[in-house]
Design goal:
Elements (H helix, E strand, L loop, with lengths): L1 E2 L4 E2 L6 H12 L5 H25 L2 H4 L12 H16 L3 H14 L12 H9 L1 H14 L5 H7 L3 H4 L2 H14 L5 H4 L11 H11 L5 H7 L1 H4 L28
Antiparallel strand pairs: 1-2
Helix pairs in contact: 1-2, 4-5, 7-10, 12-13
């Protein structure tokens, strides 16, 4: 560090010629204070110009030509903070209150907290706002789907609990069991929840057409993803996905 008589200047930030000028001010105490101030201001001006050049030359977007969201890795804690911030705005509460509400959701659905960063904010908001109702619905799901880890299933497909209540789920399972005798339909739901919306007759026809050498029921049990079409699960086209501005209402399927 060098003291010019008016301001301490960092030696490392000054170009060599500026250092000489400032040092000269120090070595010549007879020089007027006004002249020393002028030279000091010139030094500071040079530093500012150098700083501007440095910032402009080494800004990330000038050296990283592919700096975009696709190439940015978000850490989990950053994503969770962002989620809490958005939820706090939507729920009109503080981030601390959102964290408390998420902990309450996690107490009922422990596996969901492990996938918090991959769950849509809309779904998390619905779980927070309807937690008492969903907690009762969870018990019904466990009764209707014996042998299934319902908590893990819902962490992978959290919208299931929002789309199906105990009555609609019971009716769909009854319909599928009636159309697909011998299959434990409840065991197909965790891996392929879209089967709940499928037309069972169309599913059997697809199995006969695509896998003529296999038993249709066995094919449905082992290869449901191959047999389920967009129409079977209530979509009109590939762009008819949740949240798409082009999506259309789901068709009413037989119960």
């Amino acid at each position: 560090m060098i003291h010019s008589g008016f301001k301490i200047i960092n030696y490392d930030l000054l170009p060599r010629k500026d250092i000489v000028v400032v040092a000269h001010c120090k070595r010549n105490p007879q020089k007027s204070k006004l002249a020393g101030l002028k030279e000091t201001l010139e030094c500071r001006s040079n530093i500012n110009r150098r700083s501007n050049i440095t910032c402009k030359s080494y800004s990330p977007w000038s050296v990283c030509y592919q700096l975009n969201e696709r190439n940015i890795a978000w850490e989990d804690n950053v994503q969770i903070r962002l989620i809490c911030s958005v939820l706090a705005t939507r729920l009109n509460c503080t981030i601390e209150e959102v964290e408390q509400k998420l902990n309450e959701v996690g107490a009922v659905f422990p596996d969901m907290l492990t996938r918090l960063t991959t769950t849509k904010v809309d779904i998390l908001e619905s779980y927070i706002n309807n937690l008492p109702v969903l907690a009762v619905r969870l018990l019904s799901f466990k009764t209707l789907l014996p042998g299934v880890n319902v908590s893990k299933m819902l962490s992978m497909n959290p919208k299931l609990l929002l789309d199906w209540d105990e009555h609609s789920l019971a009716e769909r399972l009854s319909y599928l069991r009636r159309k697909l005798p011998g299959l434990r339909v409840e065991l197909l739901v965790p891996d392929e929840p879209s089967i709940l919306r499928a037309d069972a007759d169309a599913l059997i026809d697809a199995a006969k057409r695509l896998l003529p050498n296999e038993d249709p029921l066995s094919a449905i049990a082992t290869k449901p993803q191959m047999l389920l079409s967009m129409v079977d699960v209530g979509m009109d086209s590939a762009i008819d996905v949740e949240g798409s501005p082009f999506s259309s209402p789901r068709k009413t399927l037989p119960q």
